[in-house]
Amino acid sequence: MLGTLRVRLTALFLVVVLVFGLVSIAAAVRLFQDVTRTASERELEREAAGLAALYAESALRSTDEGAKAPEFAAEKLELATGDELFYVGASPFPGQRFGLTRVPRSALGDVELDGDRQVTFEFTPPGESRGLLAAAYPVKLEPGTDPFGWLIVAKPTAELREQWLTLVGRLVLALAVGVALAGVLFYWLSRRLTDPVLTLSRATEDVAAGRYDIEIPAARGSDEVSLLTERFRGMVAQLAETEQMKRSFLMSVSHELRTPLTAIRGHVEAIREGIITEPEQVESSLEIVVAETDRLERLVGDVLDLAKLQAHRFTVRREEVDLNRVLDHAYGAFTEEARRREIDYQLSAESEPPVIVSDGDRVLQVITNLLSNAFRWTPDGGRIELSLGSDNGDVRVDVLDTGPGVAPRERARIFDAFVSEDVNGTGLGLPIARELAVALGGRIELESEPGSGSCFRLVLPLGPAL
Fold it and tell me: Helix count (H) and strand count (E) of the chain?
């Protein structure tokens, strides 16, 4: 459980949030320290300037009018401002107490007091251990004269520390609450992300075990996981279809092989056991055995050719092919059958035959298969035409017949292996022709109307396509 992708994603998200939260807290505290110190320094400077002016005015009045020093002022001023007041230098009220705590110049350490400007610094009062943030302002009886002392307004640095410690505590509490809420949210999000992945993982185990009838929930959305789910669904569907085709192929091959083998075995056993003794009967049985042997040989060759084509292990040569010569060869192979069955058999080709770069033997095989299919379905006394033409960078070899035609719903099916309505056919001629055409860089097109015959067209590129 702890090693699952869901937990690791949640932990990773939380670590990222925690790191960014701590960095943000550190930056916020640092910024708050700077802001509070700057604000405190400005407040102390403002108070120091005002109180120094107040004491300077009182000192001047004491000198001119003989007024007493304001002994009460320091305590009340400290209570009003919340700060502590100190004084460094000569007394502005000679021989009188004026309430300010006096500190020696040495208590300020290396701080340089300038008679014309305000100074901000930190120091520790004599006899104490606490540090103070202070602002010193010169006390002058008249502008332009030398100061006879400096009024210091200070506050403990611990107050500043308490402020940002309070802030840190609140920020840490907010971070803890945020991390908890983020943990719940990230766990929910990671679950939404990983559930499809876990489903795919279980599905891959079923597929690896050869089970393709699994249900994969439809993907929701257009993200990468949804795309992966859809692609996997498509892959499983294709594998299931391939497996079904494989089983159908094996069943069809078994059936097609069993038929001629059964016939051969029956006639051979009949001859061997003496069931057939008449010379005419023996001759007839032997002719059947030879015919079924030829059919068996043709079937095995077709199966091997189709298997090689579908596995893309079929070699295709590159050579210049004179299509007129190829058509003459294919046409001549069926002239005797056309004469015997009184079929109007025609050949029409261009006066300037196109020369293409292809595999002549394979082109001849495709055309022969198409002609064989045409003769198989054309009735005696019908018409078959073989023609050659070129257009738009392609060459076209048309095989027209006056057979029964192909219904629209059957046009794709007749190119599947072992699909044939002819009991004497193997159902592999058209599939092999189509696969060969694709291997040669072309295609086979079909135009047909039920009851009006068909036109099978081989289309090949004029230029090199291999």
Answer: 9, 12
Kindly report the CATH number that applies to the domain delimited by 319-461: 3.30.565.10
- Cα separation, 279 vs 274, in Å, equals 12
List the one residue out of 337, 397, 401 whose CA is nearest residue 374. Answer: 401
Query: 370 and 448 in contact (C-beta within 8 Å)?
Result: no
Contact indicator for 366, 415 with CB cutoff of 8 Å: no
Q: How far apart are CA 340 and CA 375, in angstroms?
A: 12
CB 417 within 8 A of CB 306: yes
Distance, CA of 183 to CA of 191 (rounded, Å): 12
Domain 224-310: which CATH number of 1.10.287.130, 3.40.50.150, 3.30.590.10, 3.30.2090.10:
1.10.287.130
Residue 425, pLDDT score: 46
Residue 408 gets which letter from DSSP? G
Please state the pTM of the whole predicted model: 0.44
Beta bridge partners of 399: 386, 456
How far is it, in rounded angstroms, from Cα 427 to Cα 162?
Answer: 93
Distance, in Å, from the CA atom of 299 to the CA atom of 432, rounded to the nearest integer, reads 12
156 token code pair: 């403990």
Side-chain half-sphere exposure of 333, counting CA atoms within 13 A: 15
Average pLDDT, stretch 205-226?
71
Beta strands in 192-254 (DSSP E): none
